């Protein structure tokens, strides 16, 4: 069993994907082929934003968003302490200061209370200027944007949605889907993400004409009229045509069958919930909590165990039974060596420390079979029955 079976996904769409790749080879427009714009148009429409600007990867997408806003030295950017390194990396990369904020231990997303405390602390006790809330849709569940929007308005901050894991999720009653909740939102097409390419890729979503135009310039060396007329310092960060062609096929499958892939993941979730969240097991397996009105794209299915020892033992046990599992994430951001001396501490980060010790992600997704999921459930149960 694979943790994420990309091979099976390919086999499912092989015919269409092979044709799409061959078409690009025939056309030989390897950079900025028509497929790139076609993909952007359909993704923007799906998310519910006016513009989608594709780029080379999800990290660059975040970086480009911060560049557009002119974020830099002296700016404080509030980032959840529990996320993939890139969410904080881009902040330091651009010369601003990440302020890591504790998470809600049920949703794994940035805690609104901890965020507000961190903003107040930063205003009162540092020389930094609070500028951006960089919220992450952790494991596929959108962050609490209605709440974050209130805080952003109160303190005059921008919201950058890191939707690298969030594509396909949504919040009931909102105008857009996930990747449309920030003032600027981003996603990643890294192969294992909810919508993955066969290499690196990313995208930025916005409703703002000026921001979209700037992004298009920044991703091609700060181009003016063309790439040899350079009016600002930018990056080389484009999505190549082959990846766009592959993504077009994958997005069709993702979307067309009534969100088939997302629905499959949701079915996996329900089954895990029924089997693992029973009276008997509640005390030692905490299944993920999705708040009412929130829909996860189930980038990951992450349970919490009572302690690091139990978590590590369970993972070892599963490995012996040839069941793959992953620890997302091993370390809080504020404990990563790269950030030593580069971030500002504005409050307790206790939930994140706990979750890093206790979280374990189990296989989920449209391409694991019912039988495989049953095996996972059976072995998790048998581990505890033996204890
Ligand atoms: C994967 C990921 C990224 C980075 O995406 P890349 O395409 O790998 O650069 C950023 N943030 C989060 C939360 C991610 O999971």
Write a brief caption for the model.
By secondary structure, the chain is an alpha/beta fold.
Index terms:
single chain; alpha/beta; 11 strands; 387 residues; 12 helices
Ligand inventory reads: pyridoxal-5'-phosphate
Query: How many beta-strand segments?
Result: 11
Kindly name the structural category. alpha/beta
Query: Any low-confidence stretches, pLDDT <50, length ≥5?
Result: none
**Radius of gyration, whole Å:** 21 Å
Tally of separate helices: 12
| Secondary-structure element series | HHEHEHEHEHEEEEHHHEEHHEH
Model description:
The chain has 387 residues and is an alpha/beta fold. The protein has helices spanning 6-27, 34-47, 58-68, 86-93, 112-125, 145-155, 209-218, 241-256, 260-276, 308-320, 350-358, 370-386; strands at 51-55, 75-80, 97-101, 129-136, 158-162, 170-171, 184-188, 202-206, 294-295, 301-304, 359-362. The strands form three sheets. It has a seven-stranded mixed sheet with strand order 1-8-7-5-4-2-3, with helices on both faces. The protein has a two-stranded antiparallel sheet with strand order 6-9. The chain has a two-stranded antiparallel sheet with strand order 10-11. The structure holds pyridoxal-5'-phosphate (PLP). Pyridoxal-5'-phosphate binds next to helix 3 and helix 4.
């Amino acid at each position: 069993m694979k943790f994420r079976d990309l091979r099976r996904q390919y086999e499912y769409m092989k015919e269409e994907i092979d044709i799409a790749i061959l078409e690009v080879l025939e056309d030989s427009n390897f950079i900025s082929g028509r497929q790139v714009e076609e993909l952007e148009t359909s993704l923007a429409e799906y998310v519910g934003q006016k513009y989608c600007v594709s780029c080379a990867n999800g990290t660059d997408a975040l970086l480009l968003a911060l560049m557009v806003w002119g974020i830099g030295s002296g700016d404080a950017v509030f980032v959840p302490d529990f996320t993939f390194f890139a969410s904080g990396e881009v902040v330091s990369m651009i010369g601003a200061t990440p302020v890591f904020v504790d998470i809600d231990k049920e949703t794994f997303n940035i805690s609104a209370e901890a965020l507000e405390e961190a903003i107040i602390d930063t205003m009162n006790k540092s020389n930094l200027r609070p500028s951006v809330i960089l919220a992450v849709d952790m494991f596929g569940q959108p962050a609490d944007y209605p709440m974050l929007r209130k805080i952003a308005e109160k303190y005059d901050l921008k919201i950058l949605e890191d939707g690298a894991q969030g594509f396909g999720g949504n919040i009931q009653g909102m105008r857009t889907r996930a990747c449309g909740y920030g003032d600027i939102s981003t996603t990643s097409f890294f192969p294992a993400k909810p919508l993955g390419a066969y290499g690196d890729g990313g995208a930025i979503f916005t409703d703002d004409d000026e921001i979209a135009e700037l992004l298009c310039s920044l991703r091609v060396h700060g181009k003016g009229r063309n790439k040899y007329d350079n009016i600002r310092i930018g990056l080389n960060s484009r999505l190549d045509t082959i990846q766009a062609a592959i993504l077009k096929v994958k997005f069709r499958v993702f979307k067309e069958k009534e969100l088939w892939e997302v629905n499959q993941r949701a079915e996996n979730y329900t089954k895990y919930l029924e089997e693992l969240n029973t009276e008997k097991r509640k005390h030692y397996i905490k299944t993920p909590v999705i708040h009412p009105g929130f829909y996860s794209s189930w980038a990951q299915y992450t349970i919490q165990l009572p302690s690091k020892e139990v978590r590590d033992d369970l993972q070892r046990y599963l490995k012996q039974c040839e069941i793959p599992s992953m620890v997302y994430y091993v370390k809080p951001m504020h404990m990563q060596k790269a950030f030593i001396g580069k971030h500002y501490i504005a409050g307790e980060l206790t939930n994140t420390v706990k979750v890093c010790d206790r979280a374990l992600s189990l296989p989920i997704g449209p391409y694991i079979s019912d039988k495989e999921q049953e095996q996972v459930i059976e072995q998790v149960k048998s581990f505890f029955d033996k204890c």
